[in-house]
Design goal:
Blueprint lengths: L2 H17 L37 E2 L13 E4 L5 H15 L9 E5 L2 E3 L2 E3 L4 E5 L7 E8 L15 E4 L2 E4 L3 E3 L8 E2 L2 E2 L2 E3 L10 E12 L5 E13 L4 E5 L14 E4 L2 E5 L3 E4 L5 E6 L1 E5 L11 E5 L3 E4 L5 H9 L3 E4 L3 E4 L3 E3 L5 E12 L6 E3 L6 E8 L5 E7 L14 E9 L7 E7 L5 E9 L15 E5 L5 E8 L6 E3 L4 E9 L11 E2 L2 E2 L4 E3 L6 E10 L8 E7 L6 E10 L5 E6 L12 E7 L1
Parallel strand pairs: 2-3, 3-6, 4-7, 5-7, 6-8, 7-9, 8-11, 9-12, 10-13, 11-14, 12-14, 13-14, 14-15, 15-16, 16-17, 23-24, 24-27, 25-27, 26-28, 27-29, 28-30, 29-31, 30-32, 31-33, 32-34, 33-35, 34-36, 35-37, 36-40, 37-41, 40-42, 41-43, 42-44
Antiparallel strand pairs: 1-23, 18-21, 19-20, 20-22, 38-39, 43-45
């Protein structure tokens, strides 16, 4: 974007913020283009606690009427559309601009047909309760808009739509989002638009069918995994299609499409559903290898149904000790919508344990502890959680497998689905490392690992965090990996046999000077560092951006740093200097680039 366009954008942003009666500094600018780097915004009522007046936890409730606590709404076709619509509108009004508030909501529809319009705001999950998306039909819309920000969707985070069929009233639905806003197991019986006229910086679509056209609009980057549509229109910097039926033609970088014909190994996210007898269960999709398209379009999905009685249901106010006791007793875990403070680490030790968060359930580790640890066992599934760093520094927010883990899990890997991490933004947060993966064969299925660049409690010496992700296990596979703004290497990969399908990064916006951001004698740190000892690693469709607005003279030597060996191969990489604010000298090692004020975008197709 030209400097004149950028100045116009900032002026428009100021007008918007002043209209809302706030005194709001304009600092970080990936409102402009990027992934989550946005203006410094103070949100009113940030941190408000969810209603804990009904705080209890249970395992013994009726399978047909389990108690999911105060922040789960369950709709059924016998309810009037006015009643449902009023509740949807009330939640959206509360959540439309509630970027860092404490309210969380899961809005769940039993199988049937509904004539409603679900506008999805912050910390809201809208989902069907059928075994197939086609069991629950919304005649109207299930959509995410950016009206609250004049069409700019670069702050439309932390929400989700899942397991629904939608007949769009206008013929097209809209999902204008950026990070941490998954669109899963959806069937759109029309077209789907991925922007709202302004910039957008998503995103993930998985296990989804769109009967019409998908139009990506201004989306800077996007991952479509195991999808199907009539056609796709649009591109910007980094569009990746893995196991996608009818993926668009054309080769990176013109257009910037990366196609991988089959998804090598994946397991779809577990989900809550109601069976034909009216009982609640959790469905765990089977492991698939070398797959294309959805799990459900050809009939019932394959996998295992777990009765709700096998789950401990953690509601707001429950103590970590009670959760750990249930896990030790062999229970699976449902974490209901709310902000759950932990005074001890949640310990997942049993093979095949399912931990399922609803409504962006949030874990806050207090007193510098680790929020969750997973033993080096087969088949654990962690899904639907936001881990928010506490005010006292945690060395690690989540650890998958202990240090030195060496067991193999190829036949039944642990998987992480829609698991998000945040350091700062809702308040001061500190974590040296956000996610450490020590176990082998782990699957990461959509992770946003974010050191906050706006909101409350942000600054170079305030929300401190060295590294977002460290992978020590072998044969780990990541789909839709977003890691941003950490103060040293964003991602460090030490294990062999790793694979990444889509990576999006923005470097820290706030190094005060070059001396504060030096890796030995090298300028800056890498967005993605593969250790020198690694002999095999592959990655497809990677983007790294810089916006050094605190000090525009800061330079990153390269975005991707890898050993020069034949077994390490990177495909289709892009670097961008957002608005020409800062410099990335090279794309990978000493190849490609620069991205700077004169040449914003640089690409490398293959390395070596």
């Amino acid at each position: 974007m030209s400097p004149s366009l950028w100045q116009g954008f900032r002026a428009k942003q100021r007008r918007h913020l002043h209209r809302r009666g706030r005194v709001l500094p304009i600092a970080a600018a990936s409102l402009l283009l990027a992934s989550g780097a946005v203006a410094a915004v103070t949100v009113q009522n940030a941190g408000a606690a969810p209603d804990a007046s009904r705080s209890t936890s249970s395992t013994g409730t009726s399978a047909a009427d389990p108690d999911f606590g105060p922040n789960v709404e369950i709709f059924d076709p016998s309810m009037s559309k006015e009643t449902i619509q009023n509740r949807l509108d009330t939640v959206f009004k509360q959540q439309e601009e509630n970027q860092f508030g404490g309210e969380r909501h899961a809005l769940l529809f039993k199988p049937g047909s509904y004539d409603v319009d679900a506008n999805v705001g912050f910390y809201t999950q809208v989902a069907g309760l059928g075994l197939s998306p086609d069991d629950t039909t919304i005649n109207g819309a299930v959509h995410a808009e950016a009206d609250w920000f004049d069409g700019n969707a670069t702050q439309n985070f932390w929400r989700g739509a899942e397991n629904l069929a939608v007949n769009p009233a206008s013929g097209a639905d809209r999902w204008a989002v950026s990070q941490a806003a998954p669109y899963r197991r959806m069937h759109v019986k029309g077209d789907l638009q991925l922007d709202d006229g302004g910039w957008s910086s998503g995103g993930l679509m998985a296990d989804t069918k769109v009967d019409g056209q998908v139009r990506s609009g201004s989306q800077q980057q996007w991952l479509s995994r195991n999808t199907e549509w009539s056609s796709w229109s649009g591109s910007n910097w980094n569009m990746v299609f893995v196991g996608a039926e009818n993926a668009p033609q054309g080769d990176f970088p013109k257009p910037p499409y990366t196609r991988v014909d089959q998804t090598p190994v994946t397991r779809e996210k577990p989900f809550l559903y109601v069976d034909d007898a009216g009982d609640f269960k959790v469905f765990v999709p089977e492991l698939r290898k070398n797959s294309r398209g959805t799990t459900w379009a050809g009939g019932a999905p394959k996998g295992e149904s777990l009765p709700i009685g096998d789950f401990f249901i953690a509601k707001p106010g429950v103590k970590a000790a009670a959760i750990n006791a249930a896990l030790a007793d062999g229970k699976n875990l449902i974490v209901t919508p709310g902000v759950h403070h932990l005074d001890e680490t949640l310990k997942v030790t049993r093979p095949d344990t399912v931990v399922l968060g609803l409504g962006l359930a949030t874990l806050v580790p207090d007193n510098g502890i680790t929020a969750m640890s997973v033993a080096d066992v087969d088949g654990v599934k962690i899904a639907g959680l936001l881990v928010d760093a506490g005010t006292q520094n945690s060395d690690t927010l989540m650890e998958v497998g202990p240090k030195g883990a060496d067991a193999g899990h190829a036949d039944d890997p642990t998987s992480l689905h829609d698991v998000f991490f945040r350091v700062g933004g809702a308040g001061v947060g500190k974590a040296t490392k956000s996610l450490v993966v020590n176990s082998s064969n782990v699957i990461g299925d959509h992770l946003w690992i974010w050191r906050g660049d706006h909101g409350d409690g942000v600054g170079w010496n305030t929300n401190t965090g060295d590294t977002g992700l460290i992978v020590n296990g072998d044969d780990v596979t990541m789909y839709g990996l977003f890691v941003e703004h950490y103060q040293k290497h964003q991602t460090i990969w030490n294990g062999n046999g790793g694979r990444t399908y889509f990576y999006q990064n923005e470097m820290p916006y706030d190094p005060p000077d070059q001396g504060s951001w030096m890796n030995g004698d090298t300028k800056g740190y890498a967005a993605y560092k593969v250790a020198d000892s690694v002999t095999s690693h592959q990655a497809w469709g990677l983007g790294s951006y810089c916006f050094f607005n605190v000090n525009r003279s800061v330079v990153a030597e390269h975005a991707f740093e890898v050993p020069k060996t034949q077994g390490v191969k990177f495909h289709n990489m892009v670097t961008v200097s957002l608005g020409g604010t800062g410099t990335i000298n090279h794309v990978i090692n000493d190849t490609g680039g620069p991205s700077n004020s004169s040449n914003n975008v640089a690409n490398v197709v293959n390395y070596p």
